[in-house]
Specification:
CATH architecture of chain A: Up-down Bundle
CATH topology of chain A: Formate dehydrogenase/DMSO reductase fold
Shape of chain B: globular
Largest interface: A-B, 55 and 59 residues
Low-confidence stretches of chain B: 1-21
Number of helices of chain B: 7
CATH class of chain B: Alpha Beta
Order of helices and strands of chain B: HEHEEHEEHEEHHEHE
Order of helices and strands of chain A: EHHHHHHHHHHHHH
Radius of gyration of chain B: 17 Å
Mean pLDDT of chain A: 92
Largest sheet of chain A: none
CATH architecture of chain B: 2-Layer Sandwich
Structural class of chain A: mainly alpha
Helix content of chain A: over 70%
Oligomer: heterodimer
CATH topology of chain B: Alpha-Beta Plaits
Number of domains of chain A: 1
Mean pLDDT of chain B: 87
Strand content of chain B: 15-25%
Distance between the termini of chain B: 42 Å
Bound molecules: iron/sulfur cluster
Chain lengths: 365, 234
């Protein structure tokens, strides 16, 4: 067996930065949260009111923060208009530039229709914002609400499709090039969104144990399916049943940090499933945070792990999280923006916590 | 223009006996105009990195990046230790996976086959960097746009050879028109077995190697180098 030692080689650094992880994380949360808002607002299902409002809140906040991270991942953010001026239809990314506004536009219109009656009712208590609430508020328009919900749902499906396909089609990165990847992105997005709502349920006023239990059961189901798909991915590769999966697995063989991450993720998810099933009411903080963590780490492992596999050379490229905007600062900034948007929207969205607090919060904002 | 290039290169041709080709070199395309390509005669490469340096100087490549480099390997076979050189660069693939992914069409292929980036249009999304199976692309930290070997298109258009070819001490890098039956690249490819990197990727590279050890044609498995230059942070 010949032995090869690389004497002179180069490192190609990560080109999709943690901004990309952040974008995929946030847009996935938004789409998942939007889906969870539908039973209440679009279908009028009883018992989903709390989840509906949290879903709308989460979908709007994460949906607004996501494009910021996406723009930041462009090395020429000022040229984003090129996406619309010179679209290349053979690129999934080019389609994404149209799918994102379709989804977000649909989401905003849907949110407006969903909140329209409550906005009108709330106007009197909104001080100097009352004219705005009166302008936006009004009687319910169920037809429009469903129409916009459909538009947002189509947009959401297209966003899930393009985000998955964009990464999956990259044959040069075996870890990405498996048909399971879009499914895994979607499943972890929905599980992450259930976790997001569990955390929001505790962060915002009006915690409901029944909603928490419902979300926890949903979360356990989604995490179980994610684990099963992950196990199938592994089995297809390990048993050599399917070529792309075998190549994906082989590409990270010996990649210790990737393996540690994968094992850690599985263990955390298993613990969250057990906790969610055994204590559906009361464990939301923990299960929610674990689900968010798992959704983040899955994307981190795919993007940063995938890019640390050299395409031509042996071994792996090292990755050290930079402290600045392209690393830690960028991640913290995005999460700060998300929290800010959550606080702001929570204060603005009816039903509100206390009128006095809202007047103060919006006055400052 | 092509004639002068041929004259320059003519002396480099040598008569290597041909055995089975690992990847049949494509026949000249029945089209007008040149299709530029490169033949790298690995038996002549001494690993001096003159090409690496001249490329950096010619193309103002930032200190932390490279458009071309001579990968150098120590290969032990049957107890015999030897050195293997492998100059790497953009392959100007005939079916280049970096092209369709570009969301704004900034990466394109000229009629003469050279794959280039329109830097006025590139948004720096790095999708092409991901899609290239050869790690040939990178984001230039000075321009914040995709960067890669252009076969020195600016020099070729002026009737000059790429800087790496001109500076190659061993005469290992041979550049020319694959469509021209009299070009050195064409004649060497017709006369000798040649191979491309990662033929299974289906990219149809237009950089051909003579005397390429199949061990090195794909993703090389072995012990990675301890030191790799890397941009700290971004
Ligand atoms: S080597 Fe890479 S960058 Fe060059 S043409 Fe082929 S795919 Fe594109
Ligand atoms: S980095 Fe530039 S050339 Fe590469 S895909 Fe993006 S826009 Fe196209």
């Amino acid at each position: 067996m010949p032995e090869i030692t690389e004497i002179i080689g180069i490192t190609r650094e990560v080109a999709w930065l943690p901004w990309a992880v952040t974008y995929f994380f946030l847009i996935g949360l938004s789409v998942g949260a939007f889906a969870l808002s539908l039973p209440h607002y679009a279908f009028g299902r009883p018992g989903w009111a709390r989840i509906g409002r949290l879903g709308l809140l989460g979908a709007l906040a994460a949906g607004l923060a996501a494009p910021v991270a996406l723009l930041a991942d462009l090395h020429q953010p000022g040229r984003f208009w090129h996406f619309y001026a010179y679209p290349n239809p053979s690129s999934w990314m080019a389609w994404g530039a149209f799918f994102i506004p379709t989804y977000l536009g649909g989401l905003f219109l849907y949110a407006w229709m969903a909140l329209r009656p409550a906005l009108a009712e709330d106007a009197a208590a909104r001080g100097w914002l009352a004219p705005l609430y009166r302008l936006l508020g009004g009687p319910a328009r169920p037809g429009l609400l469903r129409g916009f919900a459909l538009l947002a749902a189509v947009g959401a499906a297209l966003v899930l499709l393009y985000t998955g396909m964009e990464v999956m089609v990259v044959r040069a990165r075996p870890l990405w090039n498996t048909p399971f990847l879009p499914v895994q992105f979607a499943l972890t997005a929905f599980a992450g969104a259930a976790g997001f709502l569990l955390v929001l349920d505790r962060l915002t006023e009006g915690h409901e144990p029944a909603a928490e239990a419902k979300l926890n059961r949903l979360l356990a189901g989604l995490l179980l399916v994610s684990l099963a798909v992950g196990a199938a991915w592994f089995a297809l590769g390990a048993l050599g049943l399917e070529a792309t999966h075998a190549a994906a697995l082989a590409s990270v063989r010996g990649h210790h940090s990737f393996q540690a991450l994968a094992l850690w993720g599985q263990a955390a998810v298993l613990a969250a499933i057990l906790l969610a099933l055994l204590r559906p009411a009361g464990s939301g903080w923990l299960t929610g945070l674990v689900a968010l963590h798992a959704a983040w780490m899955f994307r981190w492992a795919v993007f940063i792990g995938g890019q640390s596999v050299p395409k031509t050379g042996p071994g792996f490229y090292d990755y050290h999280l930079p402290m600045g905007p392209s690393g830690l600062l960028g991640i913290l900034g995005s999460m700060g923006l998300l929290v800010f948007l959550l606080v702001l929207l929570d204060a603005l969205m009816p039903p509100a916590r206390s009128r006095a607090a809202i007047a103060g919060a919006t006055g400052k904002a | 223009m092509a004639g002068s290039r041929r004259a320059l290169l003519a002396g480099l041709a040598s008569a290597w006996a041909g055995t089975a080709a690992e990847a049949a070199a494509p026949a000249p395309a029945p089209q007008l105009g040149p299709r530029w390509g490169m033949v790298v005669d690995l038996a002549r490469c001494i690993g001096c990195q003159a090409c690496t340096v001249s490329c950096i100087m010619e193309n103002a490549v930032p200190p932390d990046s490279l458009r071309t480099i001579v990968n150098t390997y120590e290969v032990t076979k049957d107890g015999v230790v030897g050195m293997a050189m492998l100059p790497r660069l953009c392959n100007h693939c005939a079916d280049a996976p970096c092209l369709p992914v570009c969301p704004v069409g900034a990466t394109f292929q000229r009629a003469d086959g050279i794959v280039v980036v329109d830097s006025d249009r590139c948004v720096g999304c790095a999708y092409c960097v991901q899609a290239c199976p050869y790690d040939a692309r990178f984001i230039n930290h000075e321009t914040n746009k995709a960067d890669k070997c252009t076969f020195c298109a600016h020099r070729v258009d002026a009737g000059l050879l790429p800087a790496c070819v001109e500076s190659c001490v061993g005469g290992a890098r041979i550049f020319g028109d694959l469509n021209d039956p009299h070009s050195t690249v064409r004649q060497r490819l017709d006369a000798e077995p040649s191979a491309v990197l990662k033929p299974e990727a289906g990219t149809q590279p237009r950089v051909f190697y003579l005397h390429l050890d199949p061990l090195l044609s794909g993703k090389v498995e072995g012990t990675p180098t301890l030191w790799r230059p890397q941009h700290e942070g971004a």
